[in-house]
Amino acid sequence: MQPPLTINPETGEPFGPPEVDGTLSMEELTTGPALDDKRIDALVAFLKTLTDARYEDLLE
Questions:
Q1: To bridge 4 with a disulfide, which of 14, 30, 35, 53 should be the other Cys (CB 3.0-4.6 Å)?
Q2: Largest Cα span, the chain
């Protein structure tokens, strides 16, 4: 079993309390399975389809 995560991988900062109590599943965030590269790539591709044309120049 993987040790619990204590650092937010997006910010590099420790996980803080949820903004609204009961809306954040710390168990899934800290011990849940990570997505494989194929699923991450699919999510990134999907999110790029939602980007407003005015901001396309900010994409990689």
A1: 30
A2: 44
**Rounded-to-integer distance, Cα 31 and Cα 34, Å:** 9
Residue 27's nearest CA partner among 4, 9, 7 is 4
Q: What is the pLDDT of residue 55?
A: 78
Q: What are the sequence ranges of the domains in the chain?
A: 34-58
- pLDDT per position as a tens digit, 11-58: 888 888 777 777 777 777 777 677 888 998 999 899 888 878 787 787
Distance set, CA 18 to CA 2, 13, 14, 30, 38 (Å):
23, 14, 12, 14, 29
Q: How far apart are CA 23 and CA 36, in angstroms?
A: 25
Rounded to whole angstroms, the Cα distance separating 36 from 33 reads 9
